[in-house]
Amino acid sequence: MMSVMMTCIYTECINLFCPAVKHSLKFITTASSGLPDFPECVVAAVVDEILVGYCDGSKKTTDLKHDWMKKVLEDDPHQLEYYKGACFDIMPTFFKLTINSLKQRFNQSGGVHILQRLSGCEWDDETREVIGFNQYGYDGEDFLSIDLKTETWIAPRQQAVLTKLKWDADKARMKSNQNYLTVIFPEWLKKYLDYGRSFLLRTELPSVSLLQKTRSSPVSCLATGFYPHRASLVWRKDGEELHEEVDHGEILPNHDGTFQMSVDLNLSSVTPEDWTRYDCVFQLSVKPMVVLAVILIGAAGFIIYKKKKAAMLTRIVTKVHSNFITSSSAVASRHYAHFLVILLPLSTFLQALGRVIFLSFE
């Protein structure tokens, strides 16, 4: 067992040099044909990549995941009625008819078929810019999407051209889409952020781990338990981000409303003398609610597992702890974006591996 002092770099940057903080509201509709044990039509509402509720159009049931979302609909019964009407009547009927039409268009008589729609908006809470989107996919491929600037529909597949021409000529449909995607949905998103402020606008730091299955396997840097999802994880050499010999994983949700991500580094061409030149960097974009993170201390412990027979999994887990001070009104008024950066040296991990005695457990 050994202790490792970790380095934490916390920087402030003016908006010109920092990515804007954007919030999103997404409605994901999935309809199916040929799946007897799967709902024919399900709609999920997602705010900043967090599932806040969904409904089953076939069973006419809803499931709200947070008390603050229930409060929103209690205070806004018109919105509740919209959701019920859309989920229980409009969407199931529209998607069922559309799937039947597409099966004929694609010359399909049976089998499993999936029609999906992703609609909603992004809202920049600093520039106030709104971006609306509405796109359809059929059997795993893009089918149709809206272009609000040209007020037309984009058809990437030949089978979608007929629908594109029909919807391009339907000016009322376009106006309705514009209203929902750029006016109504952004208003709802702002309301959700207000009601769910303590949950949606919180900041949680990750636990950062370095994992290696065998001595010849890539070293995986895993960050888990962070929030919000606006984060990056990279390997660096001599302070420069690496783009070769690395494999980036996607940002994935955890069951508790936080996120995880990983990035692998191929060590096959790295000599022990060069270990100190590498580090893993986690960067989290947060608002001025948290303006300072002080020294981070990682306690590294060695845990050895037997996997199947001779395969061993060596894991060094580094828990990240920190202390914060909240922003003063003077600091908050500058409207800075902030980044928390955690540096995890590769040399510490690999040097520790050299001291581990590989054991066999029955």
From TrEMBL:
GO biological process: immune response
Pfam families: C1-set, MHC_I
Transmembrane segments: 286-305, 336-358
All copies of domain Ig-like, residue ranges: 206-280
InterPro entries: Ig-like_dom, Ig-like_dom_sf, Ig-like_fold, Ig_C1-set, MHC_class-I_related, MHC_I-like_Ag-recog, MHC_I-like_Ag-recog_sf, MHC_I/II-like_Ag-recog
Protein name (database record): Ig-like domain-containing protein
Alphabetically ordered keywords of this record: Glycoprotein, Membrane, Transmembrane, Transmembrane helix
Coiled-coil segments: none
Source species, domain of life: Eukaryota
Annotated organism of origin: Sparus aurata
Family: Belongs to the MHC class I family.
Cellular component aspect of the GO annotation: external side of plasma membrane; extracellular space
